[in-house]
Design a protein that fits this description.
Layout: E1 3-13, H1 16-24, E2 36-42, E3 45-51, H2 59-67, E4 70-77, E5 94-98, E6 101-108, H3 113-119, H4 133-151, H5 161-172, E7 178-182, E8 186-191, E9 196-200, E10 206-210, E11 221-222, E12 227-232, E13 235-241
Antiparallel strand pairs: 1-4, 1-10, 2-3, 2-4, 5-6, 6-7, 7-8, 8-12, 9-10, 9-11, 12-13
Helix pairs in contact: 1-2, 3-4, 4-5
Length: about 250
Amino acid sequence: MCELFGLSASQAVTLEDTLCAFRRRGGLAADNPDGWGLAWQENGAFSLAKEPLPAHESALFGRLCATTRSNLMIAHVRKARLPPVNTVDNTHPFRRQCCDREWVFAHNGLVPDIVAMERANSDPVCRPDGETDSEYAFCHLLSHISRYLQASPAASGCIAYPAVALISELIASHGKFNFLMSDGEHLIAYGHDRLHYLEQSGPDARTQIATEPLSGHEGWTPFAPGELRIYRAGRSVARMLTRPSAARF
C-alpha cells in the first residue's frame, strides 16, 4: 500500500544505492507498481519528477538515482487504491504554496473520509488537481497550518508543528495515515503504523526515513505508533506522540 522515502541532511549528498533500492520497491521488490515520484531541494526550491509508471521500469527514475544530489528529498512509489487510477495528477509527491513557503507531501495509507471533510472546508488553502484521498489530506493539513499561523502572527514555522500533530492525529483516526512532508527547510514524518528512521550523527548529520528498512544498512528503528518526528539539516528538532484511534483498514 504505497511506500515512502525521505532524507534530511546537513549537506547535499547522493544516495544512489539507497534510491535504487527504493526504486526496486516500485513493482519489483514490492507490490507498488502504479507510479513514482521524487521531490528534491535544489537551488532553494523543490524540483519534482513523477510518472504514472512502475518505478523499477522508469529510465528517468534510474537516471535520477545516479545523479540527484540534495540535502532534502521525499520519494514515493504508489499502490493505487483510492482511486485505482494511474495519472500524473494522482501520483505523489504533491506540491503547493502556503504561508510563504513551498510544501511537498507524500502519503501511505487510506483516509477516504478526508475527501468529504476537505470538500466541506469553506476556506481551503488549495484544491486537489487529482482524485486521491492523499492530496485531499495534504490540502486539509495546509489549511490547518495556515489558520494556526494566521491566529498566531508572531509564530514561526516551527511553532506550527503542534498543529500538525493535532490534525495528523485527527486524520489518522479515520484510517491509515503515514506521511512525509516538507516546507523546504524541515522534513516532517508521521508514522501512524508503519515507518522507520535511520539517523547518522556528527558533522555530516543525515537522517533517512522509509516505510520499510532499505537494503545495505543496519540500525533502522521503527516509529512508535502515532509518532511525529521533525528534522532540520539531518538533525532531530522535535518529536511528538499522538494517540490515533485504531485503524479501520
